[in-house]
């Protein structure tokens, strides 16, 4: 279960023209002001920059851990949905090609042989580039995945699996694994029957610094247990996902017994303990802090999954009192983590004496030419695909305001979903049941233009790889579902005017960082309107008013078929009733492809044929004013 350090060309600081001071100028957020040192002492930023590897002493050393996470199929600083360079209000840049430049620069300054490069998961899903090589020209039939090509050029030493690695099934994941020059790690992805890991749980890299005893760096991979819920169709009966803390307790000692001087965990699980799926599983979704607190023998954790920025955080292990370093770089390659681990040779064994972390900002550098070149042909194929015209629209539709008002863009998703389920139920016992549909405002930037419509226009409406499922609920359960959805809104008084942020993304016990947009569902009818109001002046659980179907108050005992995505039906977002509801439709068809196929087959999108104003926000029954 061990590996030697991979050989790589070391560019000197002179060759790149980069000094340590210039490198520090790239730091996105300072994390070096106070460095954790054994015994509770601290060191200054100046101490941190003093490189022990250049000391005459041979009993001190420093290794550098470089980390990315949640790359989500982003190689270039490119937005496939806008057909333009990526841009956001914060001025971020994205893509592994930019992250590669940072990684190469750090290696050139500190010495490539002293570095360990890791990723914390969610690599092969999230962009049309990733989708194309999973579904259109699949890697299971011989194509090379662009993320494999890019990551191999960077020279990663290991990567943890993320939950989205399972989105396309085990065959695609195994094909991706075979294309990599480094191991995919997951100690808590275990065989359904034997409970043995189905991927390598850990690996040891030997770091050799001139004049010093080799340093053995143990790397453990872990993934959020939520995979069992979100990708149930792909993993049930095949792979189980026990708790992060529980599995780490088994494998960290094994790493130490195998001779690891340092243990780094690449953990696809957020630092703020919480679960979007409530108590559906006995283990939390986000457990990196619990991992640091409860498992002995861990020196640092590269955190992923939460899409948050943590330059440097120290957590005290409750067993040993030692400080464990956590760092999470921002997603899509926007940031790269640098963790510095200082060691001292004591009685012939290396001991960690201190650590620190900082983040580097990708918007300060150019794309690495080698990575960009490695994926150029794949990128060109995908550009041709996403810019191909598949139909026309009689009017423009925007999702920009969908989280707080009814829009034609969400109505279109709901219409296509409901229509697909209704057509499939013909000739079944549920054929005459009314069909409703749910959709969430995933992408505020999504828009369908008037006139010609391309694949990327349609795909932008639905950026996730969810599949469509049909379940049955009663009218009473429909109301319960909508009440859960309405917890997305903050409780306010008065009728405004409010900004959207004053109303949305409420903090709840299961969403301490604020309820994400993707956990707000809008429900609509197919053959008749489902209408309702959400009263944001009222407490959660009693906000849905005037709920009606076909113009009549909804019958609590009436049966409805609900077109729903697999993430939600499996328990994502902790919505009531759906996990145990009877499933009447499940053909494993991706909703995004369903939308593209609908436009291709019908040729014209006419919002007048499916869009109506069916829901609204009110305060104590009165309409409210929202200004964006």
Describe what you observe in this structure:
- By secondary structure, this protein is α/β, with parallel strands linked by helices.
- It folds into two domains: 3-382, Metallo-dependent phosphatases (Purple Acid Phosphatase, chain A, domain 2); 389-623, 5'-Nucleotidase, C-terminal domain (5'-nucleotidase,  domain 2), CATH 3.90.780.
- The chain contains 18 helices and 35 strands.
- The strands form eight sheets. Strands 2, 3, 4, 5, 8, 9, 10, 19 and 20 form a nine-stranded mixed sheet that branches. A seven-stranded mixed sheet has the order 1-12-13-15-16-18-17, with helices on one face.
- A hairpin with a 4-residue loop joins strand 6 (78-79) and strand 7 (84-85).
- Helix 13 crosses helix 18.
- It is globular, with a radius of gyration of 26 Å.
- Mean pLDDT is 92; it is low at 1-18 and 28-48.
Keywords:
metal ion binding, 628 residues, disordered N terminus, 9-stranded mixed sheet, Purple Acid Phosphatase, chain A, domain 2, alpha/beta, nucleotide-binding, EC 3.1.3.6, 2',3'-cyclic-nucleotide 2'-phosphodiesterase activity, 18 helices
Q: Tell me about the largest β-sheet.
A: 9 strands, mixed
Q: In terms of structural class, how would the helical and strand content be classed?
A: alpha/beta
Treating each run of at least 4 consecutive H or I residues as one helix, how many helices?
18
Q: Which second-level CATH architecture of the largest domain applies? A: 4-Layer Sandwich
The separation of the N and C termini measures 55 Å
Total DSSP E strands? 35
| Count of distinct structural domains | 2
